[in-house]
Write a structure and sequence with these properties.
With 116 residues, this protein is an all-alpha fold. The protein is built from six helices and no strands.
């Protein structure tokens, strides 16, 4: 089970993410990360997962995270894109390979025209 789902459930149940993850593990459910990833608080992890500011919707494993989304989340968290990718992956959210994503994006940038 993605830790992102555990965090949102823990918030709704007024439990700590670690306590809920331990309970799930005790029932034989694998959890992607037993607690909030290093460098994040419970509240900041929820903000990282929030789909829209001010809304009560969060990323799930079915959500597609693209480069623009990574840039925006990194900016909001005041950290690097690499760190944001690491946190999302620890939370069980699938994130595309950053190097491949950047290469693909750069491949779509138009080249110089007319020798300028």
């Amino acid at each position: 089970m993605p830790s992102a789902h555990v965090l949102v459930a823990a918030r709704s149940l007024l439990m700590s993410p670690r306590a809920l993850a331990e309970r799930l593990i005790g029932y034989g459910v694998e959890v992607s990360c037993p607690d909030v990833p290093a460098g994040l608080s419970f509240a900041s992890a929820l903000e990282l997962l929030r789909i829209c500011e001010g809304e009560d919707m969060f990323l799930t494993i079915d959500c597609e995270v693209d480069l623009y989304d990574l840039i925006e989340r990194s900016r909001a968290m005041k950290t690097s894109i690499t760190r944001t990718v690491q946190w999302l992956r620890e939370l069980g959210i699938p994130v595309p390979d950053l190097s491949e994503t950047l290469r693909s994006a750069l491949g779509r940038v138009p080249g110089r025209v007319g020798g300028i």
